[in-house]
């Protein structure tokens, strides 16, 4: 399968990129002396892509397992190399599950299936970075 995107310069340091879904995203970077931003940082979008890919796996797996959760989020941090070209050499993915009656074993299983088997973006990251994953459970009181 081949994915194709087209990225157009929108002036300054802003670019708009499409996606096979037909949606678009704006990208830019910090400009010295300006606080104005129009889009997302390309490198940080890589971290968002990792979270999105793994999150889709986790939620679809939990749905198949008929596991209910109240909420779910992922925090992803990446540490860049000092020298150019700067890339993420270390990435940490924290999975946060929220609910009154969390099935921790099934949540862990869903995360592990994503990390070890299904998430292609996770596998791509492992080709150039050390990836650490952590699971956190937050019990809500009902």
Automatic annotation (TrEMBL):
Keywords from the named record: Oxidoreductase, Peroxidase
Superkingdom: Bacteria
Listed EC numbers: 1.11.1.-
UniProt-recorded Gene Ontology molecular function terms: peroxidase activity
Pfam families: OsmC
Enzyme class: oxidoreductase
Name of this chain's protein: OsmC family protein
Species of origin: Winogradskyella rapida
């Amino acid at each position: 399968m081949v994915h194709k995107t087209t990225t157009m310069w929108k002036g300054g340091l802003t670019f708009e990129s499409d996606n096979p879904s037909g949606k678009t995203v704006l990208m830019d970077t910090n400009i010295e002396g300006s606080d104005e931003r129009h889009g997302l940082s390309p490198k940080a979008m890589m971290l968002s892509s990792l979270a999105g890919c793994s999150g889709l796996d986790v939620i679809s797996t939990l749905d198949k397992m008929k596991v209910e959760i109240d909420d779910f989020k992922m925090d992803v941090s990446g540490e860049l190399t000092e020298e150019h070209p700067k890339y993420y050499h270390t990435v940490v993915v924290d999975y946060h599950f929220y609910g009154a009656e969390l099935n921790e074993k099934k949540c862990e299983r869903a995360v592990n299936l994503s990390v070890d088997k299904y998430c292609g973006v996770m596998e791509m990251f492992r080709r150039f970075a050390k990836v650490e994953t952590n699971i956190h459970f937050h019990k809500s009181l009902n």
